[in-house]
Amino acid sequence: MTEYKPFKEGKVREIYDVGDALVMVATDRISAFDVILKNKITKKGAVLTQMSKFWFDYTKDLLPNHMISVDTADMPAFFRQPQFEGNSMLCRKLTMLPIECIVRGYITGSGWASYQKTGKVCGITLPEGLRESDKLPEPIYTPSTKADLGDHDENISYEQSIDVLEKHFPGKGAEYAQKLRDYTVALYKKCADYALSRGIIIADTKFEFGLDEAGNIVLGDEMLTPDSSRFWPLEGYEPGHGQPSFDKQFVRDWLKAHPDSDYLLPQDVIDKTIAKYLEAYQLLTGKEL
Ligand SMILES: Nc1ncnc2c1ncn2[C@@H]1O[C@H](COP(=O)(O)OP(=O)(O)O)[C@@H](O)[C@H]1O
Ligand SMILES: [Mg+2]
User: Fold this and answer.
1) Which residues have any ligand 1 atom within 6 Å of their CB?
2) Per residue in 135-171, pLDDT tens?
3) Where would I find the H helices in 36-172?
4) Can you give the pTM of this predicted structure?
5) Of the bound ligands, which one is closest to the alpha carbon of residue 21?
6) Residue 47, CA atoms < 13 Å, CB-side half-sphere
7) 95-233 domain in CATH 3.40.50.2300?
8) Among 242, 208, 253, which residue's Cα sits nearest to residue 32?
9) How far is CA 233 from CA 45, 94, 203, 248, in A?
10) Which protein residue has the closest C-alpha to ligand 1 atom 11?
């Protein structure tokens, strides 16, 4: 049996090159305030992978995506081990486009900070009088470039996204930039409307796209998980202040109250967090994991 080593190990995910395809594995690691915690959140990886699968299926009529299978029977034998069951996705290899495609439907976080100072978010002027966590009249597309390891991603304007793409793909910058923006907003609208009907606000999210061998734009990476998005509970939603995170609320609250914890959580906080991930999956898909 061929053994595989991840060629990329992120904070939470591991990526394996299996020849003509990739296996993306979501682990049970959790990060909060940009730190990986010492505890594992059992089933978190499976929830994230199965949630991405749900959204890839839900949007496959809008554009193609990289998902081949989440069944380890379709993967090399090495992946038929307990630690890969449920949390692994076999994906088509893409040539990734170097833009993080961010869309915001609500004003929060760095966007809220910038709006208070300038009335703008990433160069886009917004109406006056918005409160923290308000829904925007229309979702806004705020691309960024992927920074090198350790650096923060850099926000860029739509025009700059054309230049970045043009540099990598001469003659294609304007076309790709426009397609990324239009796909990003369309995906967000369709999925955020659906999530809202199931009790979850998707305040913002990030997509990544790539090119397949024929040059088609294909949706890659993970999709609309709580790790790539801000999920808020609809119940109790109230503009005028920050909203609790659907999934990390207990973790963040506990860490703030215990600054000396060294990022080791007590079991009851872990258990409640596991339950939140399972609940998010159940609400969105209507099925138990
Ligand atoms: N289908 C794909 N083909 C090739 N690369 C991909 C594909 N889908 C996602 N990627 C890339 O895989 C990497 C996932 O890494 P990740 O764990 O999210 O860490 P980071 O985002 O910090 O690089 C990203 O660089 C992403 O662009
Ligand atoms: Mg990433």
Assistant:
1) 8, 10, 13, 15, 22, 66, 91-94, 96, 208, 210, 220-221
2) 999 999 999 998 766 677 899 999 999 999 999 999 9
3) 44-58, 109-118, 158-168
4) 0.97
5) 1
6) 24
7) no
8) 253
9) 21, 34, 10, 11
10) 221
